[in-house]
């Protein structure tokens, strides 16, 4: 029987304090009435008020959200296709190159991805702006989608798919009636991952943007360079809140689905 | 046998679409960077020459333009000490923070793996959750803590540890803290997933055979967790080498890292060919660790099967 020693308890406590303290302090100080980031001047929500009056900030948030939803959705479709190709299509011509292209962007420094995409858009003479950010975000997030979906595809029983094919399903129908429902939790969490990666990205968006398309991280970055402002604390706290709620909802949903699936599998196993 | 053949024909579309996408948006851009790294810097739009256009120029002029490609950018990389020192300091900062990270992350992952089974999903979730919040925000949070009138200095002064505020922000120290903080989950998770699978009876056997608790750890647990250690180290080291946001926001003017140098070359000096040269050289440096990492992963997958 494993028991937590004092050493384990201390290292877990210190580790999680280190992980959470900065974010907690950021949120607390977003309610600071004073302008200082270190001196407490009483509770206030005025910085949240000024966030919603700052049109530039709101515009940037709206663009970021649009880029995130669009790119995550396309990346989920492309990434899922890539995952199917890698885990179901066996050996095809150029598979090594394909898997290298899918895995390489995961560890590629963002400055290189950003620069190379920008140079592509310049070479193709494409006007830079909203759509070039979307294209770039699709490209780097679809690789993360492919990895998440592929790990789910490789861990489930392929005989169910084969059974469906034997019973006369077309591969197309098999995917939508058998495979997709099983891998759906992974696809949803892959979408979430792609979405947050897109919301988060500063470097690639800075390279590939053009006039008029400023995303929220770009706006925050240029404000931070001018100095720490309580207003930035407020917008950051709002983003933390949105992500935390989304992650909790997603984990509850996947848990629920897993319980349902296990129940269905048990029923199927007990069926006469 | 008409049907399988037909499905075989349609199946290739599923591969072809993402394949084509990655060729256009990943492979082709890479070759463009390579080409521009051999170009000359110009004050023009686009800020480099030559610009190839086979249709307008015809063969002869294209050949002339080919001849005007230079290796000057690479010569500068070797000769100008700003580049070599930023490569070296990037590798040094990334390498030493990876080692420090191992010392911080191992006890956490070990504690998680020894926690009661019912706690473990929550603990994993708690490690991942900060990772979902914006990288920029997490780095930004440290500015308020580390700055001269920041929370850390106030706390230390209040405790009487220091008399005067010490400068932490805008030093390499702040860059280390930023890297350790931002990449912690990348080290903890591979270590945890390795340690969690470990068979307890091995440790019991070691103890029965006369090992002390600490001896059993160093002789059994640690060697068995090496694949997790390797995976974690590379997941931290590789992105840390090319890091831009952390040295830019937390570091000072004497913090030079290659990602920052490239950014400045591109945005401040508008020297696209030099930036491309820096990028290609960075890729070459990272090629070896990336290949070691992928071999390690492949071996892990083989073993898992």
Just give the CATH class of chain A: Mainly Alpha
% residues in beta strands of chain B: under 5%
Q: What is the average of the pLDDT values of chain B?
A: 85
Report the radius of gyration of chain B as a whole number of Å. Answer: 25 Å
Describe the overall structure.
The complex is a heterodimer of chains A (about 270) and B (about 300). Chain A is built from 11 helices and no strands. Chain A is mostly helical and about 270 residues long. Chain A has one domain: MetI-like (MetI-like fold, Orthogonal Bundle), CATH 1.10.3720.10. The longest helix of chain A is centred in the last third of the chain and has 41 residues. Chain B has a two-stranded antiparallel ribbon with strand order 1-2. Chain B has 14 helices and 2 strands. Chain B has one domain: MetI-like (MetI-like fold). Chain B has about 300 residues and is mainly alpha-helical. Chain B is globular, with a radius of gyration of 25 Å. Helix content of chain B is about 75%, strand content about 0%. The mean pLDDT of chain B is about 85. Classes of the chains: A mainly alpha (about 270), B mainly alpha (about 300). Chains A and B meet through helix 1, helix 3, helix 4, helix 5 and helix 6 of A and helix 1, helix 4, helix 5, helix 6 and helix 7 of B.
Helix and strand topology:
The complex is a heterodimer of chains A (272) and B (305).
Chain A lengths: L5 H24 L16 H8 L1 H34 L6 H13 L2 H14 L6 H24 L4 H9 L4 H30 L2 H6 L7 H10 L4 H41 L2
Chain B lengths: L1 H35 L3 E2 L6 E2 L4 H14 L4 H8 L1 H34 L5 H13 L2 H12 L4 H9 L12 H25 L3 H9 L4 H12 L1 H16 L3 H5 L8 H11 L3 H33 L1
Antiparallel strand pairs in B: 1-2
């Amino acid at each position: 029987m494993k028991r937590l020693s004092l050493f384990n308890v201390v290292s877990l406590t210190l580790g999680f304090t280190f992980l959470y303290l900065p974010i907690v302090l950021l949120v607390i100080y977003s309610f600071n009435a004073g302008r200082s980031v270190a001196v407490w001047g009483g509770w206030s929500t005025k910085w949240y008020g000024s966030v919603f009056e700052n049109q530039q900030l709101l515009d940037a948030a709206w663009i970021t959200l649009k880029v995130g939803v669009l790119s995550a959705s396309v990346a989920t479709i492309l990434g899922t296709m890539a995952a199917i190709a890698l885990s179901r299509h066996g050996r095809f011509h150029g598979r090594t190159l394909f898997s290298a292209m899918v895995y390489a962007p995961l560890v590629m420094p963002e400055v290189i991805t950003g620069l190379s995409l920008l140079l592509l858009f310049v070479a193709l003479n494409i006007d830079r702006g909203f759509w070039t950010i979307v294209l770039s975000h699709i490209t780097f997030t679809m690789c993360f989608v492919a990895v998440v979906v592929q790990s789910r595809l490789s861990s489930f029983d392929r005989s169910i798919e084969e059974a469906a094919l034997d019973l006369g399903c077309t591969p197309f129908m098999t995917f939508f009636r058998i495979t997709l429902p099983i891998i759906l939790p992974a696809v949803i969490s892959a979408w979430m991952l792609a979405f947050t990666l897109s919301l988060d990205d500063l470097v690639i968006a800075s390279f590939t943007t053009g006039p008029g398309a400023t995303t929220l991280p770009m706006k925050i970055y240029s404000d931070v360079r001018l100095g720490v402002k309580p207003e930035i604390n407020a917008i950051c706290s709002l983003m933390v809140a949105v992500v935390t709620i989304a992650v909790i909802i997603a984990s509850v949903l996947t848990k629920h689905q897993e319980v349902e699936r296990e129940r269905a599998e048990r029923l199927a196993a007990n069926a006469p | 046998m008409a049907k399988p053949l037909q499905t075989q024909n349609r199946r290739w579309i599923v591969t072809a679409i993402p394949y084509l996408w990655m060729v256009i948006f990943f492979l082709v851009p890479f070759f463009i960077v390579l080409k521009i790294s051999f170009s000359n810097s110009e004050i023009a739009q686009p800020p480099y020459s030559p610009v190839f256009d086979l249709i307008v120029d015809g063969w002869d002029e294209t050949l002339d333009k080919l001849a005007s490609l230079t290796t000057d950018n690479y010569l500068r990389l070797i000769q100008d000490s700003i580049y070599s020192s930023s490569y070296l300091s990037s590798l040094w900062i990334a390498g030493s923070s990876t080692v420090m990270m191992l010392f911080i992350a191992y006890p956490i992952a070990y504690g998680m793996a020894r926690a009661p089974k019912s706690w473990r999903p929550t603990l994993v979730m708690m490690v991942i959750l900060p990772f979902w919040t914006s990288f920029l925000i997490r780095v930004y949070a440290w500015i308020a803590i580390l700055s001269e009138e920041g929370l850390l200095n106030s706390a230390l002064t209040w405790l009487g540890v220091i008399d005067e505020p010490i400068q932490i922000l805008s030093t390499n120290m702040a860059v280390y803290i930023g890297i350790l903080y931002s990449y912690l989950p990348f080290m903890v998770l591979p270590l945890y997933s390795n340690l969690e699978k470990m068979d307890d009876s091995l440790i019991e056997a070691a103890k029965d055979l006369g090992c002390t608790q600490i001896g059993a750890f160093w002789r059994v647990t640690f060697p068995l967790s090496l694949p997790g250690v390797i995976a974690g180290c590379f997941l931290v080291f590789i992105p840390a080498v090319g890091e831009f946001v952390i040295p830019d926001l937390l570091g000072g003017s004497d913090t030079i890292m290659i990602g920052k140098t490239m950014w400045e070359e591109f945005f401040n000096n508008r020297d696209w060919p030099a930036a491309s040269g820096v990028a290609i050289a960075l890729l070459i440096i990272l090629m070896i660790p990336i290949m070691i990492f992928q071999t390690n992963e492949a071996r892990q997958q083989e073993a898992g099967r």
